[in-house]
């Protein structure tokens, strides 16, 4: 699923945006990096949309940033049945739905308390095939969820399938989930946007427009006041959120721009128009050497992986030899040391080291991806093997090989793509490799598995960040060809490696049901080897770090998916520094 966007300028842009007068309000100023594809929790699939929904809607649980363990949010506590197949959540009774007037910014508390029926509606709406949620598969651990999500809405038994989904309100503030197999990690799934309560009466009144300012009702710490599409969004504090006394934050308003160019974002940060921001790749060395900026720079490992995916049903990357050769010919060590420069680590697997069941940096998997100092082959040997494989596939020196590599608009992604394109052309000099870009919302539609294959690029980039720290959220939910998102379009009928893909599908499902953690680890090791090595449906490139600049007056908590209610600004320090 999910992508972290933290990817020279020698001039500072002055007066690029006219910020609202701060007055007595504490205004946080940030950049989303693009237009959010949605603010609907049932439809969100990307980090930009999730950043927005995280401020607006609460889940039954939340996750501790340190270890991703479940914390109470809408639920006060929960109970597992003896067989582990049922989880009952007991909900608090003091969280109301609220509405923000887009003209005045005034927040009104509605006479509706968030309840168990809202949770049931939200889960079933996400799963309803008419909603067309690309992330519904995350809920397939719920009994009957997969059958309902894949049903024909015109079928006679459609209502029966909806009724059979394993979520029910036992009373107004008690909701029970029935699972198809015991899964302790369901407490983490219960924190996700796709499982959050949704306002049925508003959705039925406004349809797809229900998330627009003036229509939307929410229950989180912030409400939506403005959404000027392709330009900016303004969120205001929900004064009726009952937990303000439990968090350190003091942010009254959040002004989020949608500037795609990281160089422009960096200039805005230098001009004190943003309180936090990213670093363009060409500026990384300068920032590290600058006596002021280096003190504002934070580089921290995060549970995310940057990868290239292959459309495995589209020639010539339908041949696993071509895919493996392309993966081998990426010099990951040079890429992270000379291009990204943010402390990233070369990746040979999909899941990074923080994830339960991971096999990260195990040279038994895709050793060509690792430099010798990490136990791998090193690039010279990888390149030699890549050229042999490509010749065996019928493309000696890349002759006859034509590929389209696509990424979403981003200066950072562009530099990475150009570097990898150069590596491939060095390895296969007679190949023709073209790079194209698309705006984020369009790009996501282009690479989804329902798009006709002739309209899909051979190779595409994505990043994935954990929803919860278990390999089930990685190899199963992202790539299982039967139940997962499966953007590479792996098929059990693949003429080259159909048997391996079937083995991969069986492994991730078996690991989901297995209760012995040591057995699960071994199953996931084999699944990672199949995905990244034998099948080579993806080319893992690097394990992310979060590279951010933060103004000295801003104190940040919850870095990964920001909980802005925990952030605080020293207003006096900011005023002293920038005069306002």
Question: Which labels suit this protein?
Answer:
four-stranded mixed β-sheet, D-Maltodextrin-Binding Protein, domain 2, seven-stranded mixed β-sheet, 580 residues, 18 helices, Dipeptide-binding Protein, domain 3, alpha+beta
Give a written overview of the molecule:
Strands 14, 15, 16, 17, 18, 19 and 20 form a 7-stranded mixed sheet that branches. The chain has a 4-stranded mixed sheet with strand order 1-13-12-11, with no helix packed on it. The protein has 2 domains: 27-271 and 551-578, 3-Layer(aba) Sandwich (D-Maltodextrin-Binding Protein, domain 2), CATH 3.40.190; 300-545, Dipeptide-binding Protein, domain 3 (Roll), CATH 3.10.105. The chain is built from 18 helices and 22 strands. The protein has helices at residues 47-56, 116-127, 145-149, 158-163, 186-189, 200-206, 262-270, 284-289, 293-296, 320-328, 332-340, 379-392, 411-427, 440-447, 475-479, 498-513, 517-534, 571-578, and strands at 27-31, 61-63, 70-72, 75-80, 86-91, 96-100, 107-113, 167-171, 174-178, 217-218, 222-228, 232-237, 253-257, 276-277, 297-310, 345-346, 402-408, 432-438, 459-465, 538-550, 554-555, 568-569.
Query: Helical segment tally?
Result: 18
Give the termini distance in whole angstroms.
Answer: 39 Å
CATH topology type of the largest domain: D-Maltodextrin-Binding Protein, domain 2
**Strand segment tally:** 22
According to CATH, the homologous superfamily of the largest domain is: Periplasmic binding protein-like II
Mean pLDDT: 94
Structural class: alpha+beta
> Structurally, how many domains make up the residues?
2
CATH class call of the largest domain: Alpha Beta
Q: What is the level-2 CATH architecture name of the largest domain?
A: 3-Layer(aba) Sandwich
Q: What would you report as the Rg, rounded to the nearest angstrom?
A: 24 Å
Reported for the largest beta sheet, the result is: 7 strands, mixed
- Overall, the morphology is globular
User: In what range is the share of β-strand residues?
Assistant: 15-25%
Helix content percent band: 25-40%
> Which stretches are poorly predicted, pLDDT < 50 over at least 5 residues?
1-22
